[in-house]
């Protein structure tokens, strides 16, 4: 009787009823269309070294248990569509590894214990409407996880409509220029979108929630970051909605950063246009470090604990932004304040020394002390002509926020008044 070693026995059990896919691929000629049989589970890994189309539906699965890519695409003009890939090989192996150009991966469901889609020197790829999920242990460390979509030295790619969760970085692009990254959804990753050296690219209309950082944009020029929504990036002391690091001559427009530790962090970046963004309910709205020559116009700062802070940053121009914490004066009724808004750093400096003072945010005493502070006012971040009003819907939300804060402050004031009165009565009675 043949007794298999435990590992071999498990492999045999795992591969039972799996249909070998590599012989099917080897048997067809270039340009063939292979329609995978519904309800069938195929065995990986496979190598595709000629142009062809591989089509399946949600009931078709390719399973790979080896420490190599489940699907390796080494040719140009290959299309994958519609089926499921279960990749049990660990990092750095990927569910799909592409080294050819002009390839398309559309509508796959990928469950991976390594990386999802990995492209190396693979130009003009279309990666659309895929679902990529981490399939390993929930306690896995960052070194055990791969990225959802990972491009290196792969230009002119389109990455759109994908949903990615639980992996290391949702979408990672390095040295991959003129890319279009749009309409993707990134959940519970380290960095939702992580871009390095992607000059001339566009990052548009993506949504990220509960990542450590929503969009990390680094080392780029002439890039558009527009229409993205990054919410609830607050799990880490370094969490932020959007980080711009070493970004130049780029446009950051019409984004929403809400409920993050830092809404937008701008470091060592210059000559960028930052316009028409909603910066709402963050601990710090915009944080600038060594940022020079950037322009901030028509942005809306609503219900942030700290509107903006700047360190070693100069020649930045702020004009026409809306600040819900500012009450200006509009004599000519043009919607713009005739008084500038200099952002007082008193509260930020105070809590940096003792975080417990956050409890007194917007309290009457804190507002009074802040108003007294004027040291170094000429260096404060200043909007020369802030907006007095914003759109009706936003104004309604702002009014609600103000009423809520006013109610809280009023309640606190009544409690303090009652405590003071009680103390005075008690002291008076004690003296008699």
Q: Residue share in helices?
A: 10-25%
What is CATH's topology name of the largest domain? Pectate Lyase C-like
Please give the alpha-carbon distance between the first and last residues: 103 Å
Number of helices: 5
The tally of strands reads: 41
- Main sheet strand line-up: 1-3-6-9-12-15-18-21-24-27-30-33-36-39
Structural class: alpha/beta
Count structural domains.
2
CATH class of the largest domain: Mainly Beta
In the predicted model, the low-confidence regions spanning at least 5 consecutive residues are 1-13, 392-406
Q: What's the shape?
A: elongated
The largest sheet, given as strand count, sense and whether it forms a barrel, is: 14 strands, parallel
CATH architectural arrangement of the largest domain:
3 Solenoid
- Please report which band the strand proportion falls in: under 5%, 5-15%, 15-25%, 25-35%, 35-45% or over 45%: 35-45%
Radius of gyration: 28 Å
Arithmetic mean of pLDDT: 85
Please render the helix and strand layout as text.
Blueprint: H1 6-14, E1 19-20, H2 22-27, E2 32-35, E3 41-43, E4 46-48, E5 52-55, E6 61-64, E7 71-73, E8 79-81, E9 84-87, E10 94-98, E11 104-106, E12 109-112, E13 115-120, E14 126-128, E15 131-134, E16 149-152, E17 158-160, E18 163-165, E19 169-174, E20 180-182, E21 185-187, E22 191-196, E23 202-204, E24 207-209, E25 213-221, E26 224-226, E27 229-231, E28 240-248, E29 251-253, E30 256-258, E31 262-267, E32 273-275, E33 278-280, E34 284-289, E35 295-297, E36 300-302, E37 306-311, E38 317-319, E39 322-323, E40 341-342, H3 346-353, H4 364-372, E41 382-383, H5 392-431
């Amino acid at each position: 009787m043949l007794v298999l070693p435990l590992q071999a026995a498990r492999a045999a059990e795992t591969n039972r009823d799996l249909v070998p896919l590599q012989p099917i691929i080897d048997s067809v000629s270039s340009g063939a269309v292979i329609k995978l049989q519904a309800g069938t589970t195929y065995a990986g890994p496979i190598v595709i070294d000629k142009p062809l189309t591989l089509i399946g539906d949600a009931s078709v699965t390719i399973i790979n248990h080896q420490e190599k890519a489940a699907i390796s695409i080494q040719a140009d003009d290959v299309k994958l569509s519609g089926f499921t890939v279960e990749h049990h090989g660990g990092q750095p192996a990927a569910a799909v590894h592409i080294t050819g150009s002009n390839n398309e991966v559309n509508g796959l469901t990928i469950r991976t214990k390594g990386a999802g889609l990995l492209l190396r020197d693979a130009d003009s790829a279309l990666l659309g409407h895929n679902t990529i999920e981490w399939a390993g242990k929930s306690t896995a460390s960052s070194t055990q996880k791969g990225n959802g979509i990972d491009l290196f030295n792969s230009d002119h790619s389109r990455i759109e409509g994908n949903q990615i969760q639980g992996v290391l970085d949702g979408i990672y692009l390095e040295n991959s220029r003129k890319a279009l990254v749009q309409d993707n959804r990134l959940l519970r990753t380290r960095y939702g979108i992580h871009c390095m050296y992607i000059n001339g690219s566009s990052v548009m209309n993506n949504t990220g929630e509960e990542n450590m950082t929503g969009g990390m944009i680094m080392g780029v020029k002439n890039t558009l970051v527009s229409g993205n929504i990054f919410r609830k990036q607050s799990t880490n002391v370094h969490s932020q909605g959007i980080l711009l690091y070493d970004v130049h001559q780029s446009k950051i427009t019409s984004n929403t950063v809400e409920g993050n530790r830092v809404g937008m962090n701008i470091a060592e970046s210059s000559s960028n246009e930052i316009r028409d963004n909603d910066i709402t309910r963050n601990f710090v709205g915009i944080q600038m470090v060594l940022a020079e020559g950037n322009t901030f116009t028509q942005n809306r700062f609503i219900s942030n604990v700290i509107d903006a802070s700047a360190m070693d940053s100069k020649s930045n121009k702020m004009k026409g932004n809306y600040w819900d914490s500012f009450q200006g004066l509009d004599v000519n009724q043009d919607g713009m304040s005739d008084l500038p808004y200099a952002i007082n750093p008193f509260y930020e400096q105070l809590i940096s020394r003792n975080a417990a003072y956050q409890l007194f945010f917007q309290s009457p005493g804190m507002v009074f002390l802040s108003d007294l502070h004027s040291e170094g006012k000429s260096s404060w971040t200043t909007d020369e002509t802030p907006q007095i009003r914003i759109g009706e819907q936003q104004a309604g939300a702002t009014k609600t926020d103000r009423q809520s804060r006013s109610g809280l402050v009023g309640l606190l004031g009544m409690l303090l008044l009652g405590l003071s009165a009680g103390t005075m009565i008690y002291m008076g009675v004690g003296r008699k």
